[in-house]
Amino acid sequence: MYLYNTMSRKKEELLPQQGKQVNIYACGPTVYNFIHIGNARPICAFDVLRRYLTWRGYTVKYVQNFTDVDDKIIKRANEEGSSAAQVAEKYIAEYKTDAHGLNVMDADVHPQVTTCMQDIIDFVKALVDSGHAYEADGDVYFRTASFPEYGKLSKNSMEDLQAGARIGVDERKESALDFAVWKAAKPGEPYWDSPWGKGRPGWHIECSAMSRKYLGDTLDIHCGGQDLIFPHHENEIAQSESVTGKPLANLWMHNGYINVDNKKMSKSLGNFFTAREVAEKYGYEVVRYMMVQAHYRSPINYCVELLDACKASLERLYTCRDTLDRAIANAPAGAADPDSLALFDQRKQAFITAMDDDLNTADGVSVLFDLVRDLNTRSNDPATTKDTLTAGARLFDELTGVLGLLYNRKQGNEIPAQVQELVDARTVARKAKDFAEADRLRDEIAALGYAVKETRQGVEITKL
Ligand SMILES: [Zn+2]
């Protein structure tokens, strides 16, 4: 598989350090509010990465942090008259509601700053001891001049960054580019004891400490939103590589932005939507579909038209699968058709080719719709055997599963036995051309809340 590496600006082959085991670290949310659709994008995109690698036989270890100590959390706690810990706990639960709604699997580990404090302090200490960081009045700053490669991910030179840095910076810092790895506690803020007094970690240091703690010095893949390239990931690299002397990650993946009606999503423009708001109107799965139908690096222009189109496409997938189920139930026995099996295999290979090329879910989804056409044709042909249809259904389920779609399918036969009996009696009546009895039974079925209809694949029962 080839993935676009932000570090080299090229597609590179995924070569895990340990055979078929892939270590992935994803920067997680700062838990002070509901996630917005911009935050929903990386969690869906990288969930597909996980599912795809697993389907291809890799074992994935996936770590995603929660930033549960931060200025914004403290501010929210003060506004709500609660504690930072309460705010964090509440929004971690809300995050999980959204993530599960979007069919995003839990990470293998979801470390939090508050549960990794000793590891973070040890990391800061290692930086100070090796001269890569210095203390100033209880704050600790990373000494960017000690890391000559600073800027290598964002392709900024140290000189350009210096020139662009704001004038009038904190004079305790040796350079405007130095950043806090530890912050002295202000009155009323949560704090932890450290060799530099009471304080709390800077944002960047937590990812360096947590990724190392759970996944080691070098990650196979580090992922996150494009907005994190600078300064967050640049700073993670400077901290981690200064301590370990090894690359922090072999591959850096960054997802593209979401624009709203062709404008950048921002609070000041008021075009800011939470995943929850959109899900309430369209359902979570439409949001997930919207993320999956685009290549993860392309921008998505969020608008009502796109959501409507995604909803319609998703419905086509559900209809195809339901039709298949009915067709399978009514299909004749017999060997699977070799031409159909060859065609299904061709679709599977095309899907793999798309996904192996930098996780191209946009092309993957087109292949899925090619398969939908193949399957619809076969479902509607009464000569198609059960084995052919079952093989098609199996591939359809595999591909939609890799994309994390079709997770709201009703499992099993949920039609009450009483309704099923009436439906069967009606089928017998129709065969005997007793249409008066068939109509009477239809009304009786309707009184129980179900509609019954003849289709080319057999009887369809739906809830009214
Ligand atoms: Zn991070």
Evaluate the radius of gyration.
27 Å
Uncertain runs: none
**Given this structure, which CATH class of the largest domain is correct?**
Alpha Beta
Straight-line distance between termini? 47 Å
Q: Explain this structure to me?
A:
The structure is a single chain. With about 475 residues, this protein is α/β, with parallel strands linked by helices. It has 3 domains: about 1-255, Rossmann fold (3-Layer(aba) Sandwich), CATH 3.40.50; about 315-405, Up-down Bundle (Four Helix Bundle (Hemerythrin (Met), subunit A)); about 415-464. Helix content is about 50%, strand content about 15%. The chain has helices at about 35-55, 70-80, 85-100, 115-130, 160-165, 205-215, 230-245, 275-280, 285-290, 305-330, 340-355, 360-380, 385-405, 415-430, 435-445, and strands spanning about 1-5, 10-15, 20-25, 60-65, 135, 140, 180-185, 200, 220-225, 250-255, 260, 265, 300, 450-455, 460-464. The strands form 5 sheets. Strands 4-3-9-10 form a 4-stranded parallel β-sheet, sandwiched between helices. A 4-stranded antiparallel β-sheet has the order 5-6-7-8. Strands 12-11-13 form a 3-stranded mixed β-sheet. Strand 11 and strand 12 (about 265) form a beta hairpin. Helix 12 packs antiparallel against helix 13. The chain is elongated and about 95 Å long. The relative contact order is 0.11. The model has no long low-confidence stretch (mean pLDDT about 95). It binds zinc ion. It is an enzyme of class 6 (ligase). Its main location: cytoplasm. One of its GO terms (biological process) is cysteinyl-tRNA aminoacylation.
